[in-house]
Write a structure and sequence with these properties.
The chain has helices at residues 2-31, 33-36, 46-53, 57-70, 171-175, 179-189, 192-196, 202-213, 230-238, 251-263, 304-314, 338-349, 357-366, and strands at 78-84, 89-95, 120-122, 137-140, 146-148, 154-155, 220-224, 243-248, 272-276, 289-294, 315-326, 370-377, 380-386. By secondary structure, it is α/β, with parallel strands linked by helices. Helix 3 (46-53) packs antiparallel against helix 4 (57-70).
């Protein structure tokens, strides 16, 4: 009987010691959760961390074998993430995809099939680069359709690869597919916006939007309807984003964009890609992009509501949408029958004339965006909004 009570006593001491050990580790981990969140994979040393936390000798004794296991080759492919809460900070381990070199890395998983929106599998070098990405081939495991690029860009339109079927866009979109328009865009076309539309110019517009982009600095950004890549190059040279996607429907614009990138100094080709896509059918996974910019383009989209709705789909919660366009108001608002005239122009050309900044705000709110703001300069307007967190 004495041995039985002695056994219970030792058993109770063991669980008491275990409870105190876990409690100490929880408190220490909570106080250092922020620092731990920045630790890289393969550098997670539990024993040194325990020493920094001021744990007891017995605590370090139990952590030592854990440190050996975590830092052994078997566990080096694990990344540690710390999720802090008011009560406790917990560790999550996620196996990296380096076990299969042909699998797309996490950042490459933003590209998706424009038909079913499933993630595309890379059959080439799965690295984002102006040079390597156009030579890659991507395949959708759901649709079984393959997408490829040429010398300058990836073609991720729905009609990509068709041989017999042809499809034309409205006149406003087809206009920018003309080589002469692509050539003239940065050689006088875009500069004319400052004269008749009050556009401040690319550099000043970039400075204006920085405040809106602050919450997503370090993330990915799409320069939608990028034309010859004025803003794509500014985004890349700024070094503020981990990935810049220059996106346009016009092949000739993307070719001009590629040429300008190659001619410009002090611009990196890494983490910058050129993609041909339809704004109403974006080839990106849902909730995968941090920011979308559309400079002087919203009025050229065949359906602005379809485009903004697609942008809302691909934005991460809290993601930012910024667009510039022009508004026909002021003295023009007194033109008789302006609304019917606007509708006729839209039906014929596919180009939309916005009659007020309130209309733009309503467009964004209708498509599910919040915190919509407008900044005016004459007919020029910069509109910003975000996806609800």
């Amino acid at each position: 009987m004495l041995l039985f009570y002695l056994y219970l006593f030792n058993f109770g001491l063991f669980f008491l010691f275990l409870f105190l050990f876990v409690k100490t580790l929880q408190q220490a981990t909570q106080s250092r959760a922020t620092e731990m969140s920045t630790m890289a994979a393969g550098k997670l040393l539990l024993a040194p961390v325990a020493t920094q936390f001021g744990c007891s000798m017995s605590t370090r004794f139990f952590l030592k074998p854990l440190s050996f296991k975590v830092n052994s080759p078997l566990f080096r492919n694990f990344a540690a993430k710390v999720r802090a809460s008011p009560a406790i900070a917990t560790f999550e381990t996620v196996l990296e995809t380096t076990l299969n070199e042909n699998e797309p890395k996490a950042k490459e998983q933003v590209l998706a099939c424009p038909i079913c929106y499933e993630t595309l599998i890379w059959n080439g070098d799965p690295v984002f680069s102006v040079d390597s990405t156009p030579r890659s081939t991507l395949k959708c495991n759901t649709c079984k359709k393959s997408y490829s690029g040429n010398e300058t860009h990836l073609d991720l339109t729905v009609a990509s690869g068709t041989k017999k079927y042809g499809e034309n866009m409205p006149a406003s979109s087809e206009l920018f597919r003309l080589p002469i328009v692509s050539f003239l865009y940065e050689r006088g076309w875009r500069q004319a916006f400052s004269i008749w539309g009050g556009f401040p110019g690319p550099e000043k517009e970039f400075e204006m939007m920085k405040d809106y982009l602050n919450p997503v600095i370090g993330g990915s950004i799409i320069d939608a309807s990028c034309a010859s890549g004025l803003f794509s190059r500014l985004f890349q040279k700024s070094g503020l984003f981990s990935l810049v996607v220059a996106l346009d429907y016009s092949e000739t614009m993307l070719k001009q964009c590629y040429d300008f990138i190659k001619q410009e100094e002090n611009i990196s080709n890494e983490n910058l890609i050129l993609v041909r896509a339809d704004i109403a059918r974006l080839p990106f996974a849902s909730s995968s992009i941090d920011a979308v910019h559309a400079g002087a383009a919203l009025h050229c989209w065949p359906s602005p509501s379809s485009g903004v709705a697609e942008i809302n789909r691909i934005l991460r919660p809290g993601g930012v949408f910024i667009a510039t366009t022009y508004v026909v108001d002021g003295p023009y608002s007194f033109i008789p029958f302006l609304s019917p005239i606007r509708e006729t122009i839209a039906q014929v050309s596919g180009s939309h004339i916005f009659l007020s900044d309130r209309e733009l705000k309503d467009l964004c709110i209708t498509c599910g965006l919040v915190d919509v703001t407008c900044v005016r300069n004459g007919r020029f307007v910069m509109i910003s909004a975000r996806k609800p967190a």
